[in-house]
Amino acid sequence: METVKEVTSFLQAAKNIPVIDARSEGEYATGHIPGSVNVPLLDNQQRRIIGTIYKQQGRQAAVQKGFELIGPLFHQKFKQLARLASDRQLLIYCQRGGMRSGILAWMMQLAEYKVFTLRGGYKAYRQWVLQVLQQPFQWIILGGKTGTGKTKCLHYLQQAGEQIIDFEGLACHKGSAFGHIGQPPQPTQEHFENLIAMQLWQMNPKQKIWAENESRMIGKLKIPDAIFEQIRKAPILCLQVEESMRQQRLLEEYGTLPINELAAATKKLEKKLGSLHTQQALEALKNGYLSAWLKILLLYYDKTYQHELAKRPSPCLSVPFDWHNIQESIHQLCFQANQLWNNALPSSAPVLDVVAKSI
Fold first, then answer.
1. Domains detected in the chain
2. CA atoms within 13 A on the CB side of 110
3. How many CB atoms lie within 10 A of CB 133?
4. What does the pLDDT look like over 53-66, one tens digit per residue?
5. Is the pLDDT of residue 257 over 60?
6. Whole-model pTM?
7. Does residue 268 sit in helix, strand or coil?
8. Are strands 217-218 and 221-222 parallel, antiparallel or unpaired?
9. Which residues pair with 142 in a beta bridge?
10. What is the DSSP code string of 80-120?
Protein backbone atom coordinates (compact mmCIF):
# COMPACT_ATOMS: atom_id res chain seq x y z
CA MET A 1 0.00 0.00 0.00
CA GLU A 2 1.22 3.51 -0.87
CA THR A 3 1.93 5.32 2.41
CA VAL A 4 2.99 8.67 0.90
CA LYS A 5 0.23 10.96 -0.35
CA GLU A 6 0.16 13.98 -2.63
CA VAL A 7 -1.34 17.19 -1.21
CA THR A 8 -4.95 16.85 -2.40
CA SER A 9 -5.10 13.16 -1.50
CA PHE A 10 -3.64 13.97 1.92
CA LEU A 11 -6.23 16.69 2.51
CA GLN A 12 -9.09 14.45 1.40
CA ALA A 13 -7.94 11.80 3.87
CA ALA A 14 -7.72 14.48 6.59
CA LYS A 15 -11.52 14.71 6.57
CA ASN A 16 -11.58 11.38 8.45
CA ILE A 17 -8.05 10.83 9.80
CA PRO A 18 -6.22 13.00 12.38
CA VAL A 19 -3.34 15.09 11.01
CA ILE A 20 -0.08 15.42 12.94
CA ASP A 21 2.45 18.22 12.39
CA ALA A 22 5.86 16.83 13.38
CA ARG A 23 7.65 20.20 13.15
CA SER A 24 8.74 22.38 16.05
CA GLU A 25 6.23 24.55 17.86
CA GLY A 26 7.79 27.65 16.31
CA GLU A 27 7.32 26.35 12.77
CA TYR A 28 3.75 25.35 13.61
CA ALA A 29 2.95 28.82 14.97
CA THR A 30 4.13 30.45 11.74
CA GLY A 31 1.71 28.38 9.69
CA HIS A 32 0.32 24.86 9.50
CA ILE A 33 -2.34 22.75 7.83
CA PRO A 34 -5.59 23.88 9.49
CA GLY A 35 -6.91 21.23 11.86
CA SER A 36 -3.53 19.59 12.41
CA VAL A 37 -2.17 18.85 15.89
CA ASN A 38 1.42 19.73 16.73
CA VAL A 39 3.49 16.82 18.07
CA PRO A 40 7.08 18.03 17.57
CA LEU A 41 9.72 15.40 17.04
CA LEU A 42 12.21 18.14 17.94
CA ASP A 43 11.18 21.21 19.90
CA ASN A 44 12.52 24.71 19.17
CA GLN A 45 15.63 24.35 21.34
CA GLN A 46 16.46 20.85 20.13
CA ARG A 47 16.05 21.96 16.52
CA ARG A 48 18.51 24.82 17.06
CA ILE A 49 21.04 22.42 18.56
CA ILE A 50 20.71 20.02 15.63
CA GLY A 51 20.98 22.86 13.13
CA THR A 52 24.20 24.13 14.69
CA ILE A 53 25.77 20.66 14.68
CA TYR A 54 24.72 20.11 11.06
CA LYS A 55 26.45 23.33 9.98
CA GLN A 56 29.60 22.69 12.01
CA GLN A 57 30.01 18.91 11.82
CA GLY A 58 27.77 17.66 9.03
CA ARG A 59 24.73 15.44 8.56
CA GLN A 60 25.97 12.28 10.27
CA ALA A 61 26.85 14.05 13.51
CA ALA A 62 23.51 15.92 13.43
CA VAL A 63 21.51 12.70 12.95
CA GLN A 64 23.40 11.03 15.79
CA LYS A 65 22.71 13.95 18.10
CA GLY A 66 19.07 13.93 17.05
CA PHE A 67 18.59 10.32 18.12
CA GLU A 68 20.41 11.09 21.37
CA LEU A 69 17.92 13.87 22.10
CA ILE A 70 14.71 12.16 21.06
CA GLY A 71 15.51 8.53 21.84
CA PRO A 72 14.50 8.77 25.53
CA LEU A 73 11.26 10.49 24.49
CA PHE A 74 10.00 7.88 21.99
CA HIS A 75 7.62 6.31 24.50
CA GLN A 76 6.06 9.73 25.26
CA LYS A 77 5.63 10.50 21.57
CA PHE A 78 4.09 7.09 20.98
CA LYS A 79 1.53 7.52 23.77
CA GLN A 80 0.62 10.97 22.53
CA LEU A 81 0.13 9.82 18.94
CA ALA A 82 -1.78 6.70 20.02
CA ARG A 83 -4.26 8.90 21.89
CA LEU A 84 -4.75 11.07 18.83
CA ALA A 85 -5.13 8.24 16.31
CA SER A 86 -8.54 7.38 14.89
CA ASP A 87 -9.15 3.71 14.15
CA ARG A 88 -5.36 3.26 14.42
CA GLN A 89 -4.78 5.68 11.52
CA LEU A 90 -2.73 8.87 11.30
CA LEU A 91 -1.58 11.42 8.73
CA ILE A 92 1.83 12.93 9.52
CA TYR A 93 3.79 15.70 7.85
CA CYS A 94 6.94 17.72 8.49
CA GLN A 95 8.62 20.57 6.62
CA ARG A 96 9.76 18.66 3.52
CA GLY A 97 8.31 15.20 4.01
CA GLY A 98 11.63 13.83 5.22
CA MET A 99 13.09 12.53 8.44
CA ARG A 100 10.81 13.99 11.10
CA SER A 101 7.54 12.69 9.68
CA GLY A 102 9.33 9.53 8.52
CA ILE A 103 10.61 8.72 12.02
CA LEU A 104 7.21 9.19 13.67
CA ALA A 105 5.54 7.16 10.90
CA TRP A 106 8.10 4.34 11.32
CA MET A 107 7.54 4.28 15.08
CA MET A 108 3.76 4.00 14.75
CA GLN A 109 3.94 1.48 11.90
CA LEU A 110 6.00 -0.80 14.13
CA ALA A 111 2.94 -0.91 16.40
CA GLU A 112 0.74 -1.72 13.37
CA TYR A 113 -0.81 1.70 12.99
CA LYS A 114 -1.69 2.77 9.46
CA VAL A 115 0.24 5.94 8.78
CA PHE A 116 0.40 8.19 5.70
CA THR A 117 2.91 11.00 5.16
CA LEU A 118 2.76 14.04 2.88
CA ARG A 119 5.04 14.03 -0.14
CA GLY A 120 7.06 17.22 -0.04
CA GLY A 121 5.71 18.08 3.42
CA TYR A 122 4.47 21.50 4.46
CA LYS A 123 6.56 23.09 1.72
CA ALA A 124 4.46 21.27 -0.91
CA TYR A 125 1.28 22.25 0.93
CA ARG A 126 2.28 25.93 0.80
CA GLN A 127 2.86 25.69 -2.95
CA TRP A 128 -0.62 24.23 -3.26
CA VAL A 129 -2.06 27.07 -1.14
CA LEU A 130 -0.51 29.70 -3.40
CA GLN A 131 -1.94 27.92 -6.45
CA VAL A 132 -5.44 27.92 -4.97
CA LEU A 133 -5.21 31.63 -4.15
CA GLN A 134 -4.43 32.44 -7.79
CA GLN A 135 -7.54 30.80 -9.19
CA PRO A 136 -10.70 32.54 -10.40
CA PHE A 137 -13.74 32.15 -8.16
CA GLN A 138 -17.24 33.50 -8.60
CA TRP A 139 -17.89 36.07 -5.90
CA ILE A 140 -20.83 38.15 -4.80
CA ILE A 141 -20.07 40.83 -2.27
CA LEU A 142 -22.09 42.01 0.71
CA GLY A 143 -21.73 45.73 1.34
CA GLY A 144 -23.33 48.29 3.60
CA LYS A 145 -22.41 51.01 6.05
CA THR A 146 -20.79 50.24 9.38
CA GLY A 147 -23.39 48.67 11.68
CA THR A 148 -25.69 47.20 9.04
CA GLY A 149 -24.73 43.71 10.26
CA LYS A 150 -22.83 42.37 7.27
CA THR A 151 -20.94 39.67 9.17
CA LYS A 152 -24.03 38.36 10.92
CA CYS A 153 -25.94 38.45 7.63
CA LEU A 154 -23.14 36.46 6.01
CA HIS A 155 -23.62 33.65 8.51
CA TYR A 156 -27.39 33.67 8.05
CA LEU A 157 -26.69 33.21 4.34
CA GLN A 158 -24.54 30.22 5.19
CA GLN A 159 -27.38 28.73 7.25
CA ALA A 160 -29.58 29.19 4.18
CA GLY A 161 -27.22 27.00 2.15
CA GLU A 162 -25.05 29.68 0.56
CA GLN A 163 -21.25 29.47 0.32
CA ILE A 164 -19.41 32.14 2.31
CA ILE A 165 -15.91 33.22 3.28
CA ASP A 166 -15.75 35.25 6.49
CA PHE A 167 -12.41 37.00 6.03
CA GLU A 168 -12.79 38.94 9.28
CA GLY A 169 -13.48 35.75 11.21
CA LEU A 170 -10.39 34.09 9.75
CA ALA A 171 -8.33 37.22 10.46
CA CYS A 172 -9.62 37.56 14.07
CA HIS A 173 -10.33 41.22 13.37
CA LYS A 174 -13.51 43.15 12.53
CA GLY A 175 -11.79 45.34 9.98
CA SER A 176 -12.07 48.80 11.55
CA ALA A 177 -9.78 50.77 13.87
CA PHE A 178 -11.76 49.09 16.68
CA GLY A 179 -11.72 45.65 15.06
CA HIS A 180 -9.04 44.14 17.30
CA ILE A 181 -10.81 44.87 20.58
CA GLY A 182 -12.11 41.74 22.26
CA GLN A 183 -10.60 39.49 19.59
CA PRO A 184 -7.94 36.77 19.93
CA PRO A 185 -4.49 37.49 18.42
CA GLN A 186 -4.41 37.56 14.65
CA PRO A 187 -2.76 34.63 12.85
CA THR A 188 0.35 35.15 10.78
CA GLN A 189 -0.08 36.22 7.17
CA GLU A 190 1.05 32.76 6.11
CA HIS A 191 -1.54 30.99 8.20
CA PHE A 192 -4.26 33.45 7.15
CA GLU A 193 -3.57 32.38 3.57
CA ASN A 194 -3.70 28.72 4.62
CA LEU A 195 -7.11 29.22 6.20
CA ILE A 196 -8.51 31.00 3.14
CA ALA A 197 -7.18 28.37 0.73
CA MET A 198 -8.60 25.49 2.75
CA GLN A 199 -12.05 27.05 2.78
CA LEU A 200 -11.95 27.83 -0.93
CA TRP A 201 -10.85 24.27 -1.70
CA GLN A 202 -13.99 22.95 -0.04
CA MET A 203 -16.29 25.22 -2.07
CA ASN A 204 -18.18 24.25 -5.20
CA PRO A 205 -16.32 26.35 -7.82
CA LYS A 206 -19.39 26.49 -10.06
CA GLN A 207 -21.43 28.33 -7.44
CA LYS A 208 -21.11 31.87 -6.11
CA ILE A 209 -19.24 32.64 -2.91
CA TRP A 210 -20.41 35.43 -0.60
CA ALA A 211 -17.93 37.69 1.17
CA GLU A 212 -18.00 41.10 2.82
CA ASN A 213 -16.82 44.23 1.07
CA GLU A 214 -13.39 44.45 2.74
CA SER A 215 -10.41 46.73 2.53
CA ARG A 216 -7.21 45.09 1.35
CA MET A 217 -5.91 45.07 4.93
CA ILE A 218 -7.80 43.49 7.84
CA GLY A 219 -5.80 44.60 10.84
CA LYS A 220 -2.22 43.60 10.07
CA LEU A 221 -3.25 40.96 7.52
CA LYS A 222 -3.61 41.38 3.78
CA ILE A 223 -6.22 39.64 1.64
CA PRO A 224 -4.19 37.84 -1.07
CA ASP A 225 -3.80 40.07 -4.12
CA ALA A 226 -5.51 37.83 -6.68
CA ILE A 227 -8.50 37.25 -4.39
CA PHE A 228 -8.80 40.94 -3.55
CA GLU A 229 -8.84 41.93 -7.21
CA GLN A 230 -11.62 39.42 -7.87
CA ILE A 231 -13.63 40.81 -4.95
CA ARG A 232 -13.24 44.41 -6.19
CA LYS A 233 -14.65 43.46 -9.60
CA ALA A 234 -17.49 41.29 -8.28
CA PRO A 235 -21.11 42.50 -8.09
CA ILE A 236 -22.07 43.98 -4.73
CA LEU A 237 -25.32 44.12 -2.76
CA CYS A 238 -25.42 46.89 -0.19
CA LEU A 239 -27.61 46.35 2.86
CA GLN A 240 -29.94 49.24 3.66
CA VAL A 241 -30.85 49.23 7.36
CA GLU A 242 -32.86 51.76 9.37
CA GLU A 243 -30.54 54.29 11.01
CA SER A 244 -31.93 53.60 14.49
CA MET A 245 -31.35 49.87 14.10
CA ARG A 246 -27.86 50.47 12.78
CA GLN A 247 -26.87 52.59 15.76
CA GLN A 248 -28.50 50.14 18.15
CA ARG A 249 -26.46 47.27 16.69
CA LEU A 250 -23.22 49.22 16.98
CA LEU A 251 -23.89 50.19 20.59
CA GLU A 252 -24.69 46.57 21.45
CA GLU A 253 -21.48 45.43 19.75
CA TYR A 254 -19.07 48.03 21.11
CA GLY A 255 -20.85 49.50 24.13
CA THR A 256 -19.69 46.77 26.50
CA LEU A 257 -16.01 46.95 25.50
CA PRO A 258 -13.41 48.58 27.80
CA ILE A 259 -13.59 52.38 27.57
CA ASN A 260 -9.80 52.74 27.64
CA GLU A 261 -9.45 50.52 24.58
CA LEU A 262 -12.19 52.40 22.73
CA ALA A 263 -10.44 55.66 23.59
CA ALA A 264 -7.06 54.40 22.37
CA ALA A 265 -8.59 53.31 19.05
CA THR A 266 -10.41 56.65 18.73
CA LYS A 267 -7.11 58.54 19.15
CA LYS A 268 -5.64 56.60 16.23
CA LEU A 269 -8.31 58.17 13.99
CA GLU A 270 -7.37 61.75 14.86
CA LYS A 271 -5.85 62.54 11.45
CA LYS A 272 -9.05 61.40 9.76
CA LEU A 273 -11.55 62.74 12.29
CA GLY A 274 -9.76 66.03 12.94
CA SER A 275 -8.61 67.31 16.32
CA LEU A 276 -11.94 68.85 17.32
CA HIS A 277 -14.04 65.78 16.53
CA THR A 278 -11.48 63.55 18.20
CA GLN A 279 -11.57 65.56 21.42
CA GLN A 280 -15.38 65.64 21.36
CA ALA A 281 -15.49 61.85 20.85
CA LEU A 282 -13.04 61.24 23.69
CA GLU A 283 -14.97 63.55 26.00
CA ALA A 284 -18.20 61.72 25.17
CA LEU A 285 -16.53 58.38 25.96
CA LYS A 286 -15.15 59.71 29.24
CA ASN A 287 -18.61 60.86 30.33
CA GLY A 288 -20.35 57.67 29.21
CA TYR A 289 -22.20 59.27 26.29
CA LEU A 290 -21.70 56.39 23.89
CA SER A 291 -24.40 57.52 21.47
CA ALA A 292 -22.68 60.90 21.05
CA TRP A 293 -19.30 59.18 20.59
CA LEU A 294 -20.80 56.89 17.95
CA LYS A 295 -22.40 59.71 15.96
CA ILE A 296 -19.04 61.49 15.68
CA LEU A 297 -17.30 58.34 14.45
CA LEU A 298 -20.00 57.63 11.89
CA LEU A 299 -19.31 60.99 10.25
CA TYR A 300 -15.95 59.55 9.23
CA TYR A 301 -16.99 55.95 8.56
CA ASP A 302 -20.02 56.88 6.42
CA LYS A 303 -17.98 59.29 4.33
CA THR A 304 -15.25 56.68 3.84
CA TYR A 305 -17.81 54.04 2.87
CA GLN A 306 -19.34 56.23 0.17
CA HIS A 307 -15.92 57.16 -1.18
CA GLU A 308 -14.75 53.55 -1.39
CA LEU A 309 -18.04 52.38 -2.91
CA ALA A 310 -17.77 55.01 -5.65
CA LYS A 311 -14.36 53.63 -6.67
CA ARG A 312 -15.61 50.08 -7.27
CA PRO A 313 -15.74 49.09 -10.94
CA SER A 314 -18.46 46.48 -10.34
CA PRO A 315 -22.28 46.61 -10.40
CA CYS A 316 -23.95 47.67 -7.13
CA LEU A 317 -27.49 47.16 -5.89
CA SER A 318 -29.02 48.51 -2.67
CA VAL A 319 -31.19 45.98 -0.84
CA PRO A 320 -33.41 46.80 2.18
CA PHE A 321 -32.75 44.49 5.13
CA ASP A 322 -35.13 44.23 8.09
CA TRP A 323 -33.49 42.76 11.20
CA HIS A 324 -36.97 42.23 12.66
CA ASN A 325 -37.76 39.84 9.78
CA ILE A 326 -34.50 38.03 9.09
CA GLN A 327 -35.86 35.03 7.21
CA GLU A 328 -37.72 37.10 4.64
CA SER A 329 -34.82 39.53 4.31
CA ILE A 330 -32.38 36.69 3.61
CA HIS A 331 -34.81 35.25 1.06
CA GLN A 332 -35.04 38.60 -0.74
CA LEU A 333 -31.29 39.08 -0.55
CA CYS A 334 -30.66 35.71 -2.21
CA PHE A 335 -33.23 36.49 -4.91
CA GLN A 336 -31.64 39.85 -5.69
CA ALA A 337 -28.18 38.28 -5.62
CA ASN A 338 -29.15 35.69 -8.20
CA GLN A 339 -30.57 38.40 -10.44
CA LEU A 340 -27.50 40.60 -10.13
CA TRP A 341 -25.01 37.74 -10.34
CA ASN A 342 -26.57 36.18 -13.43
CA ASN A 343 -26.61 39.54 -15.22
CA ALA A 344 -23.12 40.60 -14.17
CA LEU A 345 -21.13 37.43 -14.84
CA PRO A 346 -20.54 35.19 -17.85
CA SER A 347 -22.55 31.97 -17.95
CA SER A 348 -19.46 29.93 -17.25
CA ALA A 349 -16.21 30.91 -15.58
CA PRO A 350 -12.90 29.08 -15.90
CA VAL A 351 -11.95 26.82 -13.02
CA LEU A 352 -8.43 25.55 -12.62
CA ASP A 353 -7.76 21.86 -12.03
CA VAL A 354 -6.31 22.34 -8.56
CA VAL A 355 -9.80 23.14 -7.25
CA ALA A 356 -12.02 21.32 -9.71
CA LYS A 357 -10.31 17.99 -9.11
CA SER A 358 -10.50 18.47 -5.35
CA ILE A 359 -14.29 18.70 -5.00
1. 4-130 (3.40.250.10), 136-353 (3.40.50.300)
2. 8
3. 18
4. 888 898 888 888 88
5. yes
6. 0.89
7. coil
8. antiparallel
9. 212, 237
10. HHHHH-BTTEEEEE-SSSSHHHHHHHHHHHHTT-EEEEETT
